[in-house]
Specification:
It is a single chain. The protein has a single domain, classed as Dynein light chain 2a, cytoplasmic (Beta-Lactamase). Helices cover 43% and strands 27% of the residues. The longest helix has 22 residues. With 134 residues, the protein is α+β, with helices and mostly antiparallel strands. Strands 2-1-5-4-3 form a five-stranded antiparallel sheet, with helices on both faces.
């Protein structure tokens, strides 16, 4: 998969940094290729320098599994998002259609952020990313 251009990566980095500044409960937000490679990352990495790289691969795999599960139970459309509601964290993975490229927007936030607000943030950022990537 073709990486982002420097201009695209810089613009997306600014957008994700702004998102984390507005919602400090977001611990990590990253854009990854559908084959699991980190493109842009923002937020605190909780002391684990390898976390974004590992999380990009995990997010890609989870989206592929979710898509396969949807097809297996009869869905005729592609997977849009996966939500993990853990006891202490919320994780939302959202497909981003970049035109010729597909990406995964992966977000980890503290549980104190309501799920509806976090979903709104992720979907809005995915929409803005799709516009920027086309």
């Amino acid at each position: 998969m073709k990486p982002l251009s420097k201009i695209q990566a810089t613009a997306l980095q600014l957008r994700l940094n702004h998102c984390c500044a507005r919602v400090p409960e977001i611990q990590l937000i990253l854009l990854a290729t559908v084959d699991g490679f980190q493109q842009v990352v923002a937020g605190s990495q909780r002391g684990d320098a390898e976390l974004p790289e590992k999380f990009a691969a995990i997010a890609s795999s989870m989206m592929a599994l979710g898509d396969a599960a949807g097809r297996e139970v009869g869905s005729k459309t592609r997977l849009e998002a996966v939500v993990l509601d853990l006891s202490d964290l919320r994780v939302i993975l959202r497909m981003v259609d970049g035109g010729k490229q597909q990406f995964v927007l992966a977000t980890v936030a503290e549980r104190k952020v309501s799920l509806s607000i976090l979903l709104k943030i992720v979907y809005e950022n995915a929409r803005l990313l799709e516009e920027a990537l086309r």
